[in-house]
C-alpha cells in the first residue's frame, strides 16, 4: 500500500528525471565514440605516419661513412632510465644505446627486504659488466610512485640528461625502443612526450585478462591514436614513455596530489603548450593483473585519480592563457568529463540501476534508441580494437558492467575527495611466478575460506537485477529479462569470487 501511494507522486517523477539524465549522458558518450570512430577510420585510410608528420632521422653509427668520428657517442643525447623493481632491469641494460650516454636509475621504495636484496644484487651484476646503473632506495613510500620519481630527480647526475624513459617493474622494452623514440624528441623541440603502446604477455591467462585486453586495446588503438593524430591532448600512461626533461621541469615536475601523477604531469605540460606523440606500432611487453582483487584495486585508482584531478584542475585549465579555448574544451569536456566521469557513471547508473527499475514502474518508458541502439553502437565501436576477441563480446559487456560499479564508486570518491581518494595499493601481477614456485607442477587445489571470496556489493546488485528480471518475465512487456538475468548472473559470479586467477592469502 505504501508503494502504491508513493509510486505515482514520488517514484515516477524521480525515475523519469533519472532516465532523462542517463539518456543525456548516453548521448554524450555516443557522440564521443562516433567522433573517435570517424577519426580513426580517416587516420587508417589517409593519415600520415608519425615519421611523415614529424622530422625523424636515425642517429648515425660510428662506422657510418657520414658520421663525425670526433663526436664519437656525443651525437647521442644523454638519457636517464627510471624504473621500479627487477623485471625490466635486464631489458634496460640490453638497449641499443651507447653505454656512456645512458644512466639506468632503479627506484625502489619497497618495504620487503627480500625484494630490496634481489634488486640490489641484480644492479650490482649489471654494474660489474660496465653498465652505468644507479640503485636508489627510499625508506618510506610517501607520495608513492610520484614520490619515488620526484626523489630520483634530485640526484646530481640527472642534470646531465636530456630525456627520461620511464618503465614500471613488469615492462620489458625491445632493444630498439630508444632508437625509435628519441629521434622524434631530438629533431622536434616542441614534443615533450613520446608514448608507446602496451602489449600484454598474459592476455590469454584467463577470461578476465582477455576482457582487460579488449578495454585497454580500445584505449591505445583509438583514444591515444586519435589524440595524437589530431594534435589534441592525450594522457601519459605512466610507463613505456620518454619525456623531455626540460618539459617535465617546466610543467612543475612530479606531484603526488592524486594517484594519477602521470595524467597530472601530462595536463600541466599540455597547458604549457607542449605536444605529445603516440607511436602505435611501438609495443612494449607488460603484464595484466590476473586476480580479481588486484584488478579492483587498480580500477579504483584509475577511476578515482582522474576524477580527483578534474576536481583540482578544472579552474586552472579554464584560467590558462597559453592554450586555445578549443583545447580547453577538449580537455575539460571530452578528456575528463565524458571519458573519465560520464563513461563510468552512465554504465552503472543506467544499465544496472535505472533501466531495471523501469520494469517495476511501467509508467516510465525508455525509448528504444536509448535502451538498445546507442549501447549497441558504443559496444561495437569499443570492440574494434581487439578483433580476435569479438566472440567474447557478450562476456565483455557483462564484465564491464560489473566493473562499472567499482569505477562509479571510485569516481564519486574522487570528485568528493572522500576517504579513499588518495589510496594507493600496488597492483599485484603474477606472471609466471606461480609456475616458478611450483617447479612447473600443477599446484594442489587450495583450501579456501568463504570470506576470502565473498563480495557483498556484487551480490546485492545481482539480487536486485534478478528480482527485476523475474518481475519483468512475469508482468513486464519490454522483455528486459533477456538482459537482466545474464547481468545478474555476472554479478553473482563476481560476488562469489569466480573471476580471474585465485590466490589464497597463505
Structure, described:
The chain crosses the membrane at residues 17-46, 341-361, 373-399, 454-474, 480-503. It catalyses: GDP-mannose + (glucomannan)n = GDP + (glucomannan)n+1. Residues 163-357 form the Glycosyltransferase 2-like domain. It is an enzyme of class 2 (transferase). With 506 residues, this protein is an alpha/beta fold. It has a domain at 54-297: Spore Coat Polysaccharide Biosynthesis Protein SpsA, Chain A (Alpha-Beta Complex). The chain contains 17 helices and 7 strands. It has a 7-stranded mixed sheet, sandwiched between helices. Helix 3 (89-93) links the parallel strand 1 and strand 2. Helix 13 crosses helix 17. The termini are far apart. The relative contact order is 0.11.
Helical residue percent band: 40-55%
As for the CATH topology of the domain at 54-297, it is: Spore Coat Polysaccharide Biosynthesis Protein SpsA, Chain A
The H/E string reads: HHEHEHEHEHEHEHHEHHHHHHHH
What distance lies between the first and last C-alpha atoms, to the nearest angstrom? 52 Å
Domain Glycosyltransferase 2-like: 163-357
Membrane topology: Multi-pass membrane protein
Keywords: Cell wall biogenesis/degradation, Glycosyltransferase, Golgi apparatus, Membrane, Transferase, Transmembrane, Transmembrane helix
Transmembrane segments: 17-46, 341-361, 373-399, 454-474, 480-503
Keywords:
506 residues; alpha/beta; Spore Coat Polysaccharide Biosynthesis Protein SpsA, Chain A; transferase; glycosyltransferase; transmembrane; glucomannan 4-beta-mannosyltransferase activity
